[in-house]
From TrEMBL:
Residues 74-145 form the Cyanate lyase C-terminal domain. This is Cyanate hydratase. InterPro entries: Cyanase, Cyanate_lyase_C, Cyanate_lyase_C_sf, CYNS_N, Lambda_DNA-bd_dom_sf. Catalyzes the reaction of cyanate with bicarbonate to produce ammonia and carbon dioxide. It comes from the Bacteria. It is an enzyme of class 4 (lyase). The active site is at residues 87, 90, 113. Keywords: Lyase.
Length: 145
């Protein structure tokens, strides 16, 4: 079974079950953003987590096998046109150059790893409307000559 087919089955089963991504992540013992990305096909899951997720969502071994397999990471143009995802692209288009300069000022010549990386998601109440808080936490990798 393809990763995209497994992701479609996971998403449908999540709706049927009434479970939130946070609850599923908690049940499989993983951070919510990582677990959601893995269940949508963007990370390989360890066997026990794949088994537990499929058990929770009442999905079969074919889905668990797909969840354990190595993904092909890339950018799907259809996904990139989604308004929520496009706002991330827009935010990085506006603030990316400034963040790059700030990283160089603070750390020197290098980059933030997206492999040795964590991302956190939270909701913060605000009188003007709740705020979405996303934190990227990547290891600094200096360029070595």
């Amino acid at each position: 079974m393809s990763k995209s087919e497994a992701a479609r089955l996971v998403a449908s089963a999540k709706v049927r079950s009434g479970l939130s991504w946070a609850r599923i992540a908690d049940e499989i013992g993983a951070p919510v953003v990582w677990a959601t990305a893995a269940l949508l096909g963007n990370h390989p899951m360890p066997p026990e987590q794949a088994r537990r997720a499929c058990e929770l969502l009442e999905l079969d071994e074919a889905v668990a096998e797909s969840l354990r397999s190595q993904p092909s990471r890339g950018t799907d143009p259809a996904v990139m046109s989604d308004p929520t995802i496009y706002r991330f692209v827009e935010a990085l288009s506006v603030y990316g150059p400034a963040l790059k300069e700030l990283i160089h000022d603070e750390f020197g010549d290098g980059i933030m790893s997206a492999i040795n990386f964590r991302v956190d998601f939270d909701r913060r109440p605000d009188p003007d409307g709740d705020r979405v808080v996303i934190t990227f936490d990547g290891k600094f990798l200096d360029y070595r000559w």
